[in-house]
Amino acid sequence: MRLLPGWLQHYRRADLRDDALAGTITAILLVPQALAYALLAGLPPEVGLYASVLPPLIYALMGSSRTLAVGPVAVAAVMVASALQQFADGDSSRALAGALWLALLSGGFLLLFGLLRLGWLSYFVSHPVLSGFSTAAAITIIGTQIPALTGVSGDRHAAFFGFMVDIFPRLTGTSAVVAIAACATLGLLLVGRYRLSAWLSALGLSASRSTLAVRMMPLVIVVLALALSAHFDGAQYVAIVGDIPQGLPQLSISFLWLDGWTGLIGSALLIAIIGYVESLSVARILAIRRRERVDPDQELLALGATNIGASLCGGMPVAGGFSRSMVNFDAGARTQLAAIITAAWVALAAFALTDALAPLPKLVLAAIVVVAVTQLIDFKSIFSTWRYDRRDGIAQLGTIIGVLAFGIEPGLLIGMALAIGLYLQSTSDPHIAVVGQVPGTEHYRNIKRHQVSTWPALLLIRIDENIYFANAPAIESHLMDLVANTNELRNVVLVLSGVAKIDASGLEMLESISHGLKDAGVVLHLAEVKGPVMDHLATTSLLKTLTMARVHLSTQAAVDALTQKKPANA
């Protein structure tokens, strides 16, 4: 067993400068983001800082990605807020303890999945559902920041649609100072993200310096807002962050005695799944760019330990953030040493900058969140998915509507249920084709799509789906209809080139068809059976009934045997 991660065992001194620069730049982005995401989760701002120190250190030692940046993320934060709304009911101390339990439970789930090597479970969240969830979550997050941006409160227990109906009439109560400050902050951040780089490049600044300026923009705005707020006593006009405890908390397990924590288990499971899927997706994108490898099961273990560490140090659930990881990667990070350096800077900020951050207007942090999550909104994907596959499009659209209408967790469950249900519906009525021979070749194609040759006494049927309990009745019904409508029939060949699995229900269906055809004077044959399927059929009564003489290597071999034609190489 290796005591040190691979990147540290083979660390090159040449990578130190790149890692140090990337770690510093990422910390510049992370400090205001960490504060903002903690507030988004309904927690004290320092919780975001705590979750950005120990968790990245743990991931650096256990993770398989060299550049994934772990810490508080927007989607997990809004899921935490959703879980804590009813659980804490406005009690700040109970909300904090609940957040620690969510981190502990989600970490425990991830560790358990990793030990059982269940990384494949992430595939049950389809890409359309994940994309729809990210879009809806981003819209929800933007909605949750309206009170901080306007100074007007709304029904925090309502889902997005209900929240907007509740708060919209109250927006007229927004003060001019708050409105101007919010618009100015949002405008500067949007310009920094989407236009500043092009402007600086047009002025002759190098690409690297333009990128650095863009990354520094949130910090510049935070510093400017702090200066203005301190000079004009901003607390008179806008809500401010206020006092932040200096330093880092001691490791503690006192939250374990919180009553009612079992009510958070379901939320923790969803947070674990979404955080893992998001982290793994980002890690894979970055690994492909450098031809590196990410181990899904190791990621489960690393993220599990990371979240448990977050719970012990007073943090909140964490994951690999897209924007933070991309900044880390683009800044030149070579290994996880960059994450360690980022954590060191954040720890320094927790010790040295907490007093300076007290006058920071909360609307600045809200604006940072809004601009950060805009990149998660992807309406283009909805249209492209709908055009390609209506079932996936329905699942994606259903996820978005579900999240906006009913909330984060119900919406996600609706999307996952739709995706699985629609998949079962599509596979329960599989594509079955009668095939014939393309003249002059050994290729066999659908008689409805191609000009092919057929034989009156021979029926070739290709099944283009695995045969299992959900579709076995439909396949049996379809096959018997084809047989009943074919005169002079003596042999039926099931071409199983598209079948990779036959379960017990499918086997029973095939045995029933074999007996039914035999009673009708028709002989059943199989062709192009895949190796794994043949392994399962080897000891069944079906194969004993058919015998190997009626299991053909190819469709052509079956045709040659049943139409008295000699193989071409005979």
Automatic annotation (TrEMBL):
It comes from Paraperlucidibaca wandonensis. Keywords: Membrane, Transmembrane, Transmembrane helix. It is found in: Membrane. The chain crosses the membrane at residues 20-41, 94-116, 128-147, 167-191, 212-232, 264-288, 335-353, 360-377, 397-424. It is a multi-pass membrane protein. Its main location: membrane. CDD domains: STAS_SulP_like_sulfate_transporter. InterPro entries: S04_transporter_CS, SLC26A/SulP_dom, SLC26A/SulP_fam, STAS_dom, STAS_dom_sf. The keyword Membrane applies. It comes from the Bacteria. Residues 448-562 form the STAS domain. SUPFAM superfamilies: SpoIIaa-like. The keyword Transmembrane applies. This is SulP family inorganic anion transporter.
